[in-house]
Structures are given as structure tokens and as C-alpha cells.
Predict the structure.
Amino acid sequence: MAPPGKSKRLLTPTERAAEILFGLIMALTFTCSISIANARHLEIRQLLIGAVGCNLAWGIVDAIMYLIGVLAQKSRNKTIFDLIQRAEKDRASKYIADTLPPIVSAVILPEELDRIRIELTHLPDTNGHIHLTVRDILKAVAIFLLVFLSTFSVAIPFLFIHNPILALRVSNLVAIIMMFLCGWSVARYVGFSKWLMGIAMVVIGLFLVFVTIALGG
């Protein structure tokens, strides 16, 4: 399990695994729709172009939605901070307790909440504009790249293996290995069984692929 503390990494293993899994699912919905019996070079090429284009678009959407979420969260934090500074003692303490994780707020004492309130009221007012930081932008870029680049892991076999049946089998194997490694990484981060988490990630990923294809995705 990873040691606690603030990480310098842009994305946690859980966040990275989620983005990679999302990209793999999007790419597999294209590659798994290849008709092996009638597969032609042109058909495969068009499907790969479609997979790359789809992940490119969704990578951009995912990155933009992340930035919107960051701005929304910063705006909410500023609103809560302003309310704490202006509210009466009991109400301000309640605002603070509501922002804490439930397991923390359940054990923290009223005098500790009041001490936090006093410290916050001594901080300068937050009258500045809400804005994105360089780290926020870099994290959005990382999200985009994970979604987009995960396409190539399942597309590369089709570029170098001319037998479509073999290429599809290799592509699926690569995707399964990547899903397993994502689960392994998450398990190391959260302290779960690596093998169980790896297998669970593969099962969940394949299930989501089948659901997406069944629903016309």
C-alpha cells in the first residue's frame, strides 16, 4: 500500500486506472465489432481510424469536464470559506463539520471545531477570482493523453499483424493485460489483494465492453 501524504503525481493510481479503462473500453467497442469472416484491410483501417477519432474526442471531453469540475469545486470551497468567516460561531462550526469526511467529523470535538473556525477567521478574505492553476491544466492534459493513448495499445496489433483473426486475439490479450495491470496498481495504492483486484478489473472492463456493444456503443 502506498504511504499516506500528498503525492507529487498528477493523477493517483485510481484516477489513472479509471482513465485507461475508459479508453480501453472505447477502443474495444470498435475492434470487437470487426467482422472476422469478412474482414478486409480497408474495413480494419476505417475501424482503427474511428477508434482513434472517438478516443481523441472523448479525451478532450473528459479533460474539459475535469477542468469544469475543478472550477466548480474551487468556487464551492470559496463560498464555504466566506460563509465560515461571516457566520455565527455555531453555524460556522457546522459548516466546517460538513466539509470534513464523515468518519472525521464523527470523532472531532466541538472545541477542536471552534479552534479551526478561529484559525480560518484570521485568514485574509478570498476576494480574488477563481482560476485554474498550472497543475490543473497539466492534470487535464494527463487525463486526455491516458484516454487517447490507450487506443494504440489495442490498435497496434492490427497495424503489424496481417492476419485479422490473430491480430484481434493479440489485441484482446493486450487489453486484458492492461486491465489487469490497472487493477494491480489500484490494489497497491489502496491495500487490496493485487491478484483479486487485477482479475476484478478485467471482469468489470470486459463486462462494460459487452454492455457498450450491446447498447449500440
